[in-house]
Amino acid sequence: MIHVFQPALGKEELKAVKEVFESNWVGKGKITDQFEENFASHLGVRRELVRSLSCCTEGLFLSMELLGIGPGDEVILPSISFVGAANAIASAGIQPTFCDVDKRTLNTTAGFIEEKITPKTKAVIILHYGGVPCLMDEICELVRDKRIALIEDSACSVASRYKGRACGTFGDLGVWSFDAMKILVTGDGAMLYCRTPEVAQRAEKLLYLGLTTRSGLSNSVDTKWWEFEISCYGRRAIMNDIASAIGVEQLRKLPDFINRRRKIHEYYNQALSKLDWLQLPPQIPAYMESSYYFYWIQTQPEIRDQLAKYLREKGIYTTFRYYPLHWVKFYGVTTPLPNAEEAARSTLCLPIHQSLSDEEVNRIIESIYDFGKDFLNP
Ligand SMILES: Cc1ncc(COP(=O)(O)O)c(C=O)c1O
Questions:
Q1: Which of 187, 238, 293, 333 keeps 20 to 30 A from 372, CA to CA?
Q2: Alpha-carbon distance 228 to 211, whole Å?
Q3: Closest ligand 1 atom number to CA of residue 59
């Protein structure tokens, strides 16, 4: 089966993990510190603004806490979002407010967010769909004018930039995921960006039991090393040196990963442009850099579903991300969102990952052509 996403882990990562084993310290330590430092430098921000954590979902839940969001507040997010983002809002005791998206980019816009703003709106969680940045000038201006917090779910946009600035660093908080299906994979793990060092310090405490003092070997103060104090009821949601050692290697390889993904994206564009029954993803403007996390095509709903089944039978797995959250009954939201609904019925994400070979890409393209011949012009 050709997978839609797949990690690219090699001997460099294995060697780095071996070294962690040999160091006899596999918990959170100096390698995690190194990974945070390297990731901050990749983003182009000060190191003190960045913290690692167990996963991106944890970062989304944490962001509600860091912004003091609770009952009586409202938080907006595009309906085409990851389920964990809406769960984070709901866990703060409020019903998520879903907004619409552009039906071609599947990104939300300042206009769609503004439609949902009320005096109770405290924050908005945006997503850079498939790694293509949202139109950040307009969104930043809107949240500034309306005095609402901006959280960027940057799980799709590990290397994306808008006018040279890294996605995830425009708002109050940004979170990246390194789970098994992402571009940069550490097994599980994530990174959090905070606009101020004070918030980053609070985040660090909330992520590590609320501890204000270091204990054990790293404690050089006069008091007994088993004594401690806390400043909040923090959880324990940290990355360890095994995952971080993988992260350091993956981050080094990231430019190559993105190059390979760009080539596959361009190859699909060129090869599929002759098919008049499908639409290619919108062209990426020159002032944006994508991470090429998704490659999506759009066609009529019945054709989309048939194509997905046909490809699966040929051993090619496709999917649609992200199932509209306003269709998830559990959230109890029924307001229609026409663009999100149309996009959800017509969009199909094709396999794209750095381990995909040219032969596999050709097989996918040929299968799409065969489908066109077999089903559309029999
Ligand atoms: C857009 C988006 N946000 C957040 C997450 C959650 O990431 P994690 O698995 O690290 O919690 C995912 C995971 O699929 C995602 O796709």
A1: 293
A2: 7
A3: 11
Residue nearest to atom 8 of ligand 1 (CA): 56
CA-to-CA separations, 370 to 275, 337, 362, in angstroms, rounded: 11, 34, 12
Which atom of ligand 1 is closest in space to residue 57's alpha carbon? 11
Q: In terms of pTM, does the model score above 0.90?
A: yes
pLDDT for 224 = 81
Ligand 1 touching residue 257 (CB < 6 A): no
Packed helices 197-207 and 56-66: angle between N→C axes, nearest 10 degrees: 120
Q: Which fold has domain 255-376?
A: Aspartate Aminotransferase, domain 1 (3.90.1150)
* Beta carbon of 2 within 6 Å of any ligand 1 atom: no
pLDDT 10s digits, 313-360: 999 999 999 999 999 999 999 899 999 999 999 999 999 999 999 999
CA separation for the pair 303, 295 (Å, rounded): 17
Instruction: Give the CA count within 13 Å in the CB-facing half-sphere of 239.
Output: 34
Burial code of 125-156, b = ≥16 C-beta within 10 A, e = fewer?
bbbbbbbbbbbbeebbebbeeeebbbbbbbbb
Please state which architecture CATH assigns to domain 11-251: 3-Layer(aba) Sandwich (3.40)
**Mean pLDDT confidence for 39-66:** 98
Task: Determine if residue 160 is left, alpha or beta; phi over 0 gives left, psi from -120 to 50 gives alpha, anything else beta.
Answer: beta
Model pLDDT for residues 233-291, shown as the tens digit of each residue: 999 999 999 999 999 999 999 999 999 999 999 999 999 999 999 999 999 999 999 99
Mutate to test the pocket of ligand 1, among 125, 179, 186, 188 (most ligand atoms within 8 A of CB): 179
Q: What is the pLDDT of residues 150-175, one digit of tens each?
A: 999 999 999 999 999 999 999 999 99
Asked whether 4 lines ligand 1 (CB < 6 A), one says: no
Q: How far is the CA of 82 from the centre of ligand 1 (A)?
A: 6
Judge whether residue 20 has pLDDT over 70: yes
Distance 50 CA to ligand 1 centre (A): 18
Judge whether 368 and 307 are in contact, CB under 8 Å: yes
The domains of the chain are located at: 11-251, 255-376
Q: Find out whether the peptide bond into 287 is cis, omega within 30 degrees of 0.
A: no
The SS3 assignment for 319 reads strand
